[in-house]
């Protein structure tokens, strides 16, 4: 059949184009669009047909009728209610199921009006029920978690504005494996295939905290996650599990920031997480759990400590209520003195009711069972009831999960066992003189070998770890400071070598090893460790003389390189430890070189009395490391001294110093603070060039001075610098520092500055100890120099 004649379409030049070409393209596009709509309608019809057939089955069972009658009844009821058959089918299923999806639908019915969805849309209860039931049907029909994730996004989450879905499977070690995803590229999924234990992500937060995590904007919290580059907006992670055990985590992402959501939206998300849990339990989801209790029983019998094998005990609704003690090994020792036969087979809370205390043993077991994250504590209090009397016992506890079973191991400790444990740790770490410092009471325990090592009598008070530098060679002060900072502030095990100067004049080379001890809540209980005399090792290791000579030569070369690097640093920037007094103003400085001693830094400080009787105070930081940075630092520091003799104010001095940096150096850029103190008026004027502001400690409080304008030195040829002024009062302390004191690789600078203010508020007897305290407890972890200048007005 011939097509009707169409008018010619004019070309750009005005000539008519062939009519058939344009109309054929239009017809083809219309045909494609019509076929696409037909395919979509067919898909929707197939997906809705499963819900309608399920509703018919419910009517057959309740009305005791046939399939034809049930179909007629469904059509009649839908017409009378003014609903489609699909909407009525979803409502019938909700009434019959009474599950999370029906709760979400009821939440919409109970709301005053249509609830706003994250994408800006609104929805009625029937729409919600249809979408969730359709997503449920798609998930149940899916052959694997991947297909289920795609169904969740298409049917339930896309109408809420979400664009990304990830279903994580929780491993037995609290790791996360990507089991299914939608809205993400295959490359992104490969990059996030596996998340090891301990990596902080939104999904791990939901797993460990065992609750839904709502993030208004992923890009603002700094947690890495899948799809964060293309979907930096709202993010929700929901733990998905059954029977008290978390099988995985459902993660949903939005491209834009997520406003606070109403309860009905939250119920929808929880209903979808429950679907994920059932999907992960299916043959295409997580690995089958299997019966691992016999394996755990065999493992418990082989352990040298008391061990219990526990299995979850669920109520009729499938909720975890307790744990059944399935097995106790032959070495089991009950804190209440009961035999194994009394405890085996009982519920945990029946046998040990006091384990239900807040954050007690039951809570730890429940957390391990839910997340798979193992728990260990060297000292944990176990309380048993003996004739209604609470009997506490201290034990080392380990809890691990294997499948559905939990293995609980404990070792009761008495006073003799604690001393034996101390000796065991001393042998493990290769120590000669052992010690333990109680962080709660301040009590210090030394053994006799340590007294002999120090050349002290046994009745003399032990020396605290914090005073170690006072008994060592001055050149070892930097290494000891880093060691104390690692153990006392960062609370990690550490070791260092130093030269011990004994009271009898003998110098010994010592290696000290220390490790912190925590309770079950992560609080520091004690610091224990040992001192080892390494000065006579070559006499006791004759059989390894050749190897040791070669090692000693290598160590000597390394020590010589470090010594030369340290001498170069000190020649450029001497780490002065002697305070300076001028006009009732006490000035103290500290300089800590970089962790890698061969890197010469560009940090500087200066404190000098000018001819005008004013006191010049300055700190600065030249960008980079190496000889170039050190040379630029010397130029700027000396130039500032010379310029200060003119009597100009700090703002003008920095403007001149900027000219020096821009024109008289090789592309040197730096930050700096310049301050002038007038002893007659007690006024301190200051200016900054892109540097961190000073901190004023007054009356037990610490605060940063108000920022003044000024860009870094050397960036442009001409720059103006604003001045600030503060009137110092008696006992005021002013602190100026470089960013090496607070800079961290894993956190924002503002957070580190706030922690520095909290550390600066710590009371200290004098200015020097305040500076030492700041260095020891500084929160930095970057390889950078640190300059710290403190002044105190008497």
Summarize the topology.
Layout: H1 19-63, H2 67-81, H3 85-97, H4 100-110, E1 115-116, E2 122-123, H5 125-141, H6 145-157, E3 164-170, E4 176-182, H7 186-191, E5 194-195, H8 202-209, E6 213-215, H9 218-221, E7 235-242, E8 245-253, H10 263-281, H11 293-301, E9 306-314, E10 320-328, H12 340-343, H13 348-351, H14 361-371, E11 375-386, E12 389-402, E13 405-413, H15 415-428, E14 433-438, E15 444-446, H16 448-454, H17 477-489, E16 494-501, E17 507-518, E18 524-533, H18 537-540, H19 545-572, E19 580-582, E20 585-592, E21 601-609, E22 615-625, H20 627-644, H21 650-663, E23 670-678, E24 683-689, E25 695-698, E26 701-704, E27 724-727, E28 733-737, H22 749-760, H23 767-776, E29 786-793
Antiparallel strand pairs: 1-2, 3-4, 3-8, 4-5, 6-7, 7-8, 9-10, 9-13, 11-12, 12-13, 14-15, 14-18, 16-17, 17-18, 19-20, 20-29, 21-22, 22-23, 23-24, 24-27, 25-26, 25-28, 28-29
């Amino acid at each position: 059949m011939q097509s009707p004649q169409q008018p010619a379409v004019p070309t750009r030049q005005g000539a008519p184009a062939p009519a058939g070409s344009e109309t054929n393209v239009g017809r083809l596009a219309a045909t494609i669009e019509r076929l696409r709509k037909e395919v979509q309608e067919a898909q929707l019809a197939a997906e809705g047909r499963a819900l309608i057939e399920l509703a018919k089955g419910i009517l057959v069972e309740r009305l005791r009728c046939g399939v034809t009658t049930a179909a007629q009844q469904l059509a009649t009821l839908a017409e009378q209610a003014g609903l489609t058959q699909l909407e009525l089918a979803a409502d019938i299923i909700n009434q019959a199921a009474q599950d999370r999806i029906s709760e979400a639908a009821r939440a919409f019915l109970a709301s005053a009006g249509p609830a706003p969805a994250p994408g800006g849309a609104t929805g009625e209860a029937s729409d919600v029920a249809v979408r969730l039931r359709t997503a449920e049907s798609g998930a149940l029909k899916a052959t694997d978690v991947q297909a289920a994730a795609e169904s969740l996004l298409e049917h339930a989450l896309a109408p809420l504005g979400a664009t990304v879905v990830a279903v994580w499977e929780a491993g037995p070690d609290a790791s996360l494996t990507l089991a299914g995803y939608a809205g993400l590229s295959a490359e992104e999924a490969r990059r996030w295939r596996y998340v090891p234990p301990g990596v902080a992500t939104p999904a791990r937060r939901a797993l460990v905290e065992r609750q839904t995590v709502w993030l208004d904007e992923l890009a603002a919290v700094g947690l890495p996650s899948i799809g964060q580059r293309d979907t930096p907006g709202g993010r929700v992670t929901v733990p998905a599990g059954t029977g008290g055990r978390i099988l995985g985590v459902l993660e949903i992402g939005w491209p834009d920031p997520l406003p606070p959501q109403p309860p009905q939206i939250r119920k929808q998300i929880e209903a979808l997480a429950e679907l994920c849990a059932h999907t992960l339990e299916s043959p295409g989801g997580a690995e089958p759990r299997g019966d691992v209790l016999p394996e755990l029983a065999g493992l418990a019998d082989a352990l040298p400590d008391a061990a219990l094998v526990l299995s979850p005990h669920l109520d009729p609704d499938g909720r975890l209520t307790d744990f059944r003690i399935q097995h106790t090994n032959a070495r089991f020792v009950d804190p209440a003195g009961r035999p194994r036969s009394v405890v085996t087979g009982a519920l945990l809370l029946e046998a040990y009711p006091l384990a239900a205390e807040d954050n007690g043993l039951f809570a730890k077991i429940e957390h391990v069972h839910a997340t798979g994250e193992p728990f260990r504590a060297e000292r944990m209090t176990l309380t048993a009831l003996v004739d209604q009397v609470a009997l506490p016992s201290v034990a080392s506890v380990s809890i691990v999960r294997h499948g559905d079973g939990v293995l609980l191991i404990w070792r009761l400790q008495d006073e003799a066992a604690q001393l034996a444990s101390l000796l065991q740790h001393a042998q493990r770490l290769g120590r000669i003189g052992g010690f333990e410092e109680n962080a709660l009471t301040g009590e210090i325990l030394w053994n006799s070998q340590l007294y002999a090592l120090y050349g002290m009598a046994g009745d003399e008070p032990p020396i605290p770890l914090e005073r170690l530098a006072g008994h060592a060679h001055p050149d070892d002060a930097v290494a000891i400071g880093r060691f104390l900072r690692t153990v006392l502030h960062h609370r990690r095990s550490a070791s260092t070598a130093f030269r011990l100067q004994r009271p009898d004049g003998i110098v010994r080379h010592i290696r000290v090893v220390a490790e912190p001890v925590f309770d079950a809540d992560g609080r520091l209980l004690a610091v224990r460790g040992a001192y080892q005399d390494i000065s006579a090792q070559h006499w006791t290791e004759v059989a390894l003389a050749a190897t040791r000579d070669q090692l000693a030569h290598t160590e000597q070369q390394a020590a010589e390189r470090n010594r030369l690097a340290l001498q170069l640093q000190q020649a450029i920037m001497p780490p002065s430890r002697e305070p300076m007094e001028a006009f009732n103003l006490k000035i103290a400085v500290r300089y800590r070189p970089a962790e890698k001693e061969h890197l010469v830094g560009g940090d500087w400080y200066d404190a000098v009395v000018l001819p005008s009787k004013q006191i010049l105070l300055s700190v600065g930081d030249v960008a980079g490391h190496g000889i170039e940075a050190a040379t630029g630092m010397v130029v700027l520091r000396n130039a500032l001294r010379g310029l200060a003799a003119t009597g100009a104010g700090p703002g003008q001095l920095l403007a001149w110093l900027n000219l020096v940096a821009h024109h008289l150096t090789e592309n040197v850029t730096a930050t700096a603070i310049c301050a002038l103190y007038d002893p007659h008026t007690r006024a301190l004027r200051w200016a900054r060039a892109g540097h961190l502001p000073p901190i004023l400690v007054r009356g037990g409080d610490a605060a940063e001075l108000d920022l003044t304008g000024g860009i870094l030195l050397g960036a442009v040829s001409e720059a103006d610098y604003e001045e600030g002024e503060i009137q110092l009062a008696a006992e005021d302390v002013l602190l100026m520092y470089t960013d090496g004191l607070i800079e961290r690789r894993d956190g924002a600078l503002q957070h580190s500055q706030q922690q520095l203010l909290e550390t600066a508020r710590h009371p200290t007897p004098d200015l020097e100890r305040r500076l030492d305290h700041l260095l020891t407890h500084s929160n930095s972890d970057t390889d950078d120099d640190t300059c710290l200048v403190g002044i105190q007005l008497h």
